[in-house]
């Protein structure tokens, strides 16, 4: 067997594989002898079928199968031995005139080669790492929310601003007939809440659904309508009040602190607020980190310049999926995914250059810490090492979990790299301002 490569340019090559008779003949002969031993052909005893008849009936199929196996094996080994970094898979060139009655065969494969490039993490312009802080307004709102949650329900004679209103939304046309509890902060604008103020049990409030809630998805919750119906719903509904309650705020005392955090873990209002701030900012850190990951990814894709074998990749995409694509569809799909491909190549280079690969021991340690944290939420503060290892072993026996945890760890490794090596500046921002700036 002889394999040669012709480099068309820096990103495209053609590999030619020449297979001679001696490369496959012994294997084909052995398989046909085995076929002869087991073949059931009318008029002949088992094992006594003439070899010529076996070759005539099975020879071509066995030959094609063995040559293809030999071809794929040889090509795979060649790519490894030559250390060729290819994109997609080798594409066989069409051979309409291939003669399977010949002794020797020649096959050609197109290769798309990965580009050579350098990644510069430290750019001239600094990327902002947003440190999301819980300000006094947010902390006080959370304190009040907790006081309401643990407070005493008090019956009210009429609806006030902070009432919890139980009743039934109704519309015959859309078959809406849903009993629910609602608070006025869910309603959009000023006019809608005003319609409820002063309402008593038995009163019926008429409402327009368009612009009724701050979030249109609340229509699904309160009306029990499908997602598609919720968007753009513009009808009139009625709400019959069946119950009105208020909340008497719970006292900020040791009994409440113990319920929330455990015996004597928090002993004052100041500590209570500090704990809320700490817990909130831990949650916010995940959002800030995700924003930083997104921004660094965008920077790297925009500032790491290299070409891709686009024609090859589009051709490869036509047959790579479950369903074949047309040339036009493949071009459209390539344009959609090109940015992602570029980042995957950049990420792969960073992982290799900075030795960020996730090892099994890393996965095990990460899963044990995760388990420990989950157990602590349910009051199991000191699980044994064996207990943690047994649970981790069960988790890591699931390939889907291994993949998910590996992706989590790799994201963390890359994030740590970006924070230490990229040009990063930190900016404090309140959660409300963060949401307004990036998600409104």
Give the SSE layout.
Blueprint: E1 2-7, E2 12-19, H1 21-38, H2 51-81, E3 86-92, E4 105-113, E5 127-133, H3 136-149, E6 152-155, E7 164-171, E8 176-183, H4 191-196, E9 204-208, H5 218-223, H6 227-230, E10 236-248, H7 254-261, H8 269-303, H9 310-320, H10 327-353, H11 360-377, H12 385-396, H13 399-421, E11 424-430, H14 431-439
Parallel strand pairs: 5-11
Antiparallel strand pairs: 1-2, 2-4, 3-4, 6-10, 7-8, 7-10, 9-10
Helix pairs in contact: 1-2, 8-13, 9-10, 11-12, 11-13
What would you say this structure looks like, in words?
- This protein is α+β, with helices and mostly antiparallel strands and 440 residues long.
- It folds into three domains: 2-113, Alpha-Beta Plaits (2-Layer Sandwich), CATH 3.30.70; 152-248, Chitinase A, domain 3; 272-439, Trigger factor, domain 2 (Orthogonal Bundle).
- It is built from 14 helices and eleven strands.
- The protein has helices at 21-38, 51-81, 136-149, 191-196, 218-223, 227-230, 254-261, 269-303, 310-320, 327-353, 360-377, 385-396, 399-421, 431-439; strands spanning 2-7, 12-19, 86-92, 105-113, 127-133, 152-155, 164-171, 176-183, 204-208, 236-248, 424-430.
- The strands form three sheets. Strands 6, 7, 8, 9 and 10 form a five-stranded antiparallel β-sheet that branches. Strands 1-2-4-3 form a four-stranded antiparallel β-sheet, sandwiched between helices.
- Helix 8 packs across helix 13, helix 9 (310-320) packs across helix 10 (327-353) and helix 11 (360-377) crosses helix 12.
- The radius of gyration is 34 Å and the shape is elongated.
């Amino acid at each position: 067997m002889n394999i040669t490569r012709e480099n068309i340019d820096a990103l495209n090559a053609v590999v030619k594989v020449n297979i001679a008779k001696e490369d496959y003949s012994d294997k084909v002969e052995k398989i046909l002898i085995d076929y002869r031993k087991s073949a059931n052909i009318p008029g002949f005893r088992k094992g006594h079928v003439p070899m010529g008849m076996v070759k005539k009936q099975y020879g071509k199929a066995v030959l094609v199968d063995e040559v293809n196996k030999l071809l794929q094996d040889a090509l795979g080994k060649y790519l490894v031995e030559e250390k060729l970094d290819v994109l997609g898979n080798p594409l066989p060139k069409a051979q309409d005139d291939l003669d399977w009655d010949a002794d020797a065969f020649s096959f050609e494969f197109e290769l798309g080669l990965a580009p050579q490039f350098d990644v510069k993490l430290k750019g001239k312009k600094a990327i902002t790492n947003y440190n999301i802080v819980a300000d006094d307004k947010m902390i006080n709102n959370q304190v009040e929310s907790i006081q309401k949650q643990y407070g005493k329900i008090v019956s009210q004679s009429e609806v006030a601003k902070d009432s919890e209103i139980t009743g039934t939304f109704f519309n015959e046309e859309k078959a809406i007939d849903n009993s629910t509890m609602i608070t006025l902060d869910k309603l959009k604008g000023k006019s809608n809440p005003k319609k409820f103020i002063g309402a008593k049990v038995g009163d019926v409030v008429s409402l327009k659904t368009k612009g009724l809630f701050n979030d249109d998805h609340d229509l699904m919750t309160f009306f029990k309508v499908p997602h598609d119906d919720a968007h753009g719903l513009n009808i009139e509904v009625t709400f019959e009040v069946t119950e009105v309650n208020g909340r008497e705020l719970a006292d900020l005392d040791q009994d409440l602190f113990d319920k929330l955090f455990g015996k004597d873990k928090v002993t004052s209002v100041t500590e209570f607020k500090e704990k809320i701030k700490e817990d909130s900012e831990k949650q916010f850190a995940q959002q800030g980190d995700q924003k930083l990951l997104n921004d660094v990814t965008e920077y790297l894709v925009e500032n790491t310049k290299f070409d891709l074998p686009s024609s090859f990749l589009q051709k490869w995409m036509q047959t790579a999926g479950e369903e074949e694509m047309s040339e036009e569809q493949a071009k459209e799909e390539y344009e959609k995914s090109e940015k992602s491909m570029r980042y995957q190549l950049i990420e792969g280079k960073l992982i290799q250059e900075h030795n960020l690969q996730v090892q099994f021991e890393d996965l095990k340690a990460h899963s044990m810490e995760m388990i420990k944290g989950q157990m602590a939420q349910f009051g199991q503060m000191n699980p044994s090492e064996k207990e943690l290892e047994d649970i981790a072993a069960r988790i890591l026996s699931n390939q889907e979990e291994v993949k998910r945890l590996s992706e989590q760890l790799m994201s963390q490794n890359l994030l740590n790299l970006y924070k230490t090596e990229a040009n990063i500046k930190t900016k404090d921002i309140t959660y409300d301002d963060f949401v307004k700036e990036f998600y409104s």
